[in-house]
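Incident review: delayed structure delivery

Summary: a single-chain prediction request sat in the queue longer than the usual turnaround. Root cause was a stuck worker, restarted by the on-call engineer. No data loss occurred. The affected request and its eventual output are reproduced below so the record is complete for anyone auditing the incident later.

Affected input:
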Amino acid sequence: MRRQDDMMRPHRGSEGGAVSIPGAHSVFADTQALLNWLDESHAPSRLHSAASAHDPTRGFQEPARQGARFTTKVSQTDPCGRQGSAAGPLPPQLFSRAPQAEPPKPELSCDEDQVRLETLRRDVLPELQAKREELQVSIRAIEARDAEVRHQCAEAEREAREELDLLLGHLTSVETLKLSVLGREWDVRTEVVEGVNDVVGRSPERGVLNVDSMRAFLEEFPDLCARAETLRSMSLPHVEVSDEIPFEVRERNRNLQRATVLDTMLSAKDVCLWTVERQARQLARDSQEITARRAQMAAALDRCSE
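Output delivered after worker restart:
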């Protein structure tokens, strides 16, 4: 017991300084930390220590207690920080001195990386390259088809605009001709109406003329009569303007509808004729088969009669 108690005390040299022993300093520090923690956590044991302070056998029992305490607590932990079968938690000084190491992470070797890289190059990359080539061919085909569609639409638009310009030009010419004829007739009739209004305006009313006015009217009377006679005998030109407006688009649509109906009727006629022809051929085959069986039956009856 004295040896164990001596192990717990630091060794001093000749000069009074502490001498560190290799391998024993860390064990002593960890053991001292455990003893301090046990003294703090077991407070009731201090009362028992105070009561036994005047015990004459205290000098013999204290080294034994310290030795047992040292033996028990040292068995609960080792200098590396591994816990034993202690019931309570360990002091934080122990964990701060010897922290637990993290578990090592799995590392991939260079050989495994090379195998995976070779697998990628051998299996995945060829398929991706083939897929890329296929998609590029498809993209080029789509681009060619897009250009063809654009060209066809532009050509159809150009033809439609040419046809529309032609139709509009024809319609404009017809409109100009008809409007010119109607305008000339309107001008002639308007001129006659203005002449009649002039003659009527120059004729004085009854009982209104004085001597001077009557003398002036008599001077203008021959010209007024000639003007009135001219207006009466004037022949008005009359040109019949037909109401036929070239609705070429409407007529074309009507013709297209007729052509569609005729095509449908012709298709139905062809189907009917083909159906009748097949039925006629089937009837001919049936008649031939019936004739052959009749001949066979006649031959069989002849053999039976013999």
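Verification: The two ends are 147 Å apart (CA to CA).
Action items: add queue-age alerting; document worker restart procedure.
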